[in-house]
Amino acid sequence: MAYETLIVETRDNVGLITLNRPQALNALNSTVLKELQQAFADFHANEAIGAIVLTGSERAFAAGADIKEMQPLQFADMYKAEFISGWDEIAKARKPVIAAVSGFALGGGCELAMMCDFIIASETAKFGQPEITLGVIPGMGGSQRLTRVVGKSKAMDMVLTGRMMDAAEAERAGLVSRVVAPERLLDEALAAAAKIASLSQPSVLMAKEAVNRALETTLEEGLRFERRLFHSLFATEDQKEGMAAFIEKRKPAFKHR
Ligand code: HXC
User: Could you tell me the distance, in angstroms and rounded to a whole number, from the CA of residue 23 to the centre of ligand 1?
Assistant: First the structure.
């Protein structure tokens, strides 16, 4: 399919999606959302794909939801259309998604990066929730996901003042998992995704589910959930193969990659 706002490619077993609206710093409009839903659905349907990398340009991952598209909207329009709900599909992706962020990740851009499983940032990355400066608040999860990740004090600081956080601060705060030089960003993210895609997919999907459950439930329930998933993986051939390969000092040949 031909995309207007994305570049969609595959690199071996990795799906690569590049936001491509340079004239608007990759602002997220309804076309971007529709096309992202399509690209995600295609990669999920494609058995060969084991992980996805989502990136933007060097200048901007995404500078937010499209302010020009939103400005004239009325409450009733937003409510009737359940504006924003389409992004839930992206957040609920089953296959692992890595955000590779360079430049601005603001408002919906920061929120989109946080919907991914982890964020690898370039030294130039800048994160922020500037919605308050527009007379609104975050709407795609910024007040919820950011708070869970960086804690109340820093989340309040970001959401109430709208200030930006650089890559070093984002790493200290736990918002990003690694910071790399700008020219290394895509290779680093693709290598991480390729590693994930080389592993047994049932264990990868369960690992993602288990970590996500930690944000949704009590410790006791979370531990029970993890243990059940752990037990269930012993019903897979890949558990036998992975452990046998370790003992025999060879590389595992996973069946369910
Ligand atoms: C629409 C945008 C945009 C946005 C940038 N542009 N951000 N268009 N929506 N979110 C457009 C500009 O209008 C401009 O177009 C072009 O991109 C380049 O931007 P400049 O402002 O000229 O660049 P610069 O001076 O380098 O400043 C970069 C910037 C600034 C600091 C990132 O663009 C900025 O503050 N952008 C808005 C950030 C923001 O408030 N985001 C939150 C949005 S609300 P022209 O045509 O003039 O050249 C949101 C809510 C999410 O995200 C939840 C609900 C869905």
Answer: 10
Predicted model pTM: 0.98
Respond yes or no on whether ipTM tops 0.85.
yes
pLDDT per residue rounded down to tens, the chain (257 residues):
799 999 999 999 999 999 999 999 999 999 999 999 999 999 999 999 999 999 999 999 999 999 999 999 999 999 999 999 999 999 999 999 999 999 999 999 999 999 999 999 999 999 999 999 999 999 999 999 999 999 999 999 999 999 999 999 999 999 999 999 999 999 999 999 999 999 999 999 999 999 999 999 999 999 999 999 999 999 999 999 999 999 999 999 999 98
Which residues have any ligand 1 atom within 6 Å of their CB? 24-25, 27, 63-68, 84, 104, 106-108, 130-131, 134, 138-140
200-248, which class in CATH? mainly alpha
Residue ranges of the chain that CATH labels 1.10.12.10: 200-248
Q: Is 150 helix (H, G, I), strand (E, B) or coil?
A: helix
Give the residue, out of 23, 25, 115, 137, with the most ligand 1 atoms within 8 A of its beta carbon, to mutate for a pocket test.
Answer: 25
Q: How far apart are CA 226 and CA 216, in angstroms?
A: 13
CATH topology (fold) of 6-197: 2-enoyl-CoA Hydratase; Chain A, domain 1 (3.90.226)
Q: How far apart are CA 226 and CA 209, in angstroms?
A: 9
CA separation for the pair 34, 15 (Å, rounded): 17
